[in-house]
Amino acid sequence: MTRILYLHGFASSPASGKARYFREHLEDAGARVDIPDLAAGDFEHLSITGQLAVIEQAAAGDAVSLIGSSLGGYLAALYAAHHPEVRRLVLLAPAFAFARLWSSTLAGAEQVEEWRRTGTMEVFHYGENRNCHLGYQLLADAGRYEDYPDFSQPALIFHGMHDDAVPVSSSREFSAGHANATLQVLDSDHQLLNMLDYMAPRIARFLIES
Q1: Does 209 have pLDDT greater than 90?
Q2: Which helix (H) or strand (E) holds 157?
Q3: Do residues 68 and 91 touch, judged by C-beta distance below 8 A?
């Protein structure tokens, strides 16, 4: 049976509507889908390194395929670049160049410096529907990782042309340098919610072994 890990986005959770949608459709098509909590119950101390450790534990050394949404897409790419047992990837609006991207979404260098100085900031957690503290270690740790992970496995990338959170140019830049990746730019925004029914059968055909 094809085993798939779904990696949710930043400040999201395994209970997200998108995660549940893909689990239902891919399990109906014959796959096993696991959705780990990438924060491991400790969002305040979230880091890229910690999330990669969660993925490694969930994969348990198995040959898995990965679906990653936003930050989850970047994590999927990072993980696949160092784990050849990963078979295939589907990246949904992947947050490539996460450290630079995150810094640019804040109100300039002054707010980043305030975050560094105080060690924490409040962000809205969609999975918990409330503001939560987030430590600066996320940005500090993210700077250790490459902007565009050089994985070689086959990949599908879906990105909305109206994405105002992660620019579609980042997926275009990545796919231009990786013949193993096929990019589809869709008439959608960052969430891609209006394209779920379009993507689901294509993802199933791509990931699930016959």
Answers
A1: no
A2: strand 155-160
A3: yes
Give 114-157 pLDDT, tens digit per residue. 999 999 999 999 998 999 999 999 999 999 999 999 999 999 99
CA–CA dist 68, 167 (Å, integer): 16
Of 155, 163, 148, 153, which Cα lies nearest the Cα of 195? 163
Side-chain-side CA neighbours of 45 within 13 Å: the count stands at 4
- How far apart (Å, rounded) are the C-alpha atoms in residues 161 and 151? 24
| Strand pairing class (120-125; 130-135) | antiparallel
SS3 183: strand
Give residues with Cβ within 8 angstroms of 82, minimum separation 6: none
pTM of the prediction? Answer: 0.96
pLDDT for residue 111: 84
pLDDT confidence tier of residue 57, bands split at 50, 70 and 90 = very high
Helix, strand, coil tally for the chain in percent (to 5): 40, 20, 40
DSSP state of 207: H
| Buried/exposed 113-127: b ≥16 CB within 10 Å, e otherwise | eebeeeeebeeebeb
Residue 188 is given by DSSP the state S
Lookup: tokens for 10: 């930043």
Rounded to whole angstroms, the Cα distance separating 67 from 45 reads 24
Q: Check whether 107 has a pLDDT greater than 60.
A: no
